[in-house]
Amino acid sequence: MRIILASKSPRRIELLRSLGLDIEICPADVDENIDEVTEKPHEAVTLLASRKAQAIAQKLCDPAALIIAADTLVYKDKTLLGKPRDEDEAFSMLRALSGDQHSVYTGICVAYGGKFAKKAVETAVFFRNLSDDEIENYVKSGEPMDKAGAYGIQGRACLFVKGIEGDYFNVVGLPLTELFEMIKESFGISYDQMI
Q: 181 by DSSP, 3-state: which?
């Protein structure tokens, strides 16, 4: 089966390949403006994931391909936090997350046979109190710069996390259980048929 990942995220690529899937990488270049849905983070992430899946489906014109698209955002105090634009913004984001709870939302959209299925997954993340020096050193490492909310739970920022409620892989960027359940329910394709 031809499986397309509509993303260049190293985390998503690694997660899918760790499951033994032979995936093609085909990043979608789409408008990521979501101002109209900032009060509804689950809508924002599913909208972005849907845009990516639709763009690749139109580009490939291969209904036999299974297209997987996802988008992850951090949500705190009615504010969506995507990837930081610079180090100052990364510092501000991490300071805002310090010592408090926030939510990580990932929207997933799968296209197959001309049909689309989508959903959003939420995970609560609890950060310990971070000193300015810790935040500054983390930002200088470069790790936060390509990650929603300016941190990667699978990297050095694991030391910031006191706990989570929900799917760990959702925080990494792709809720695997939800993804494969959705593929099976929506398209009748099991994981075993994909490997």
A: helix
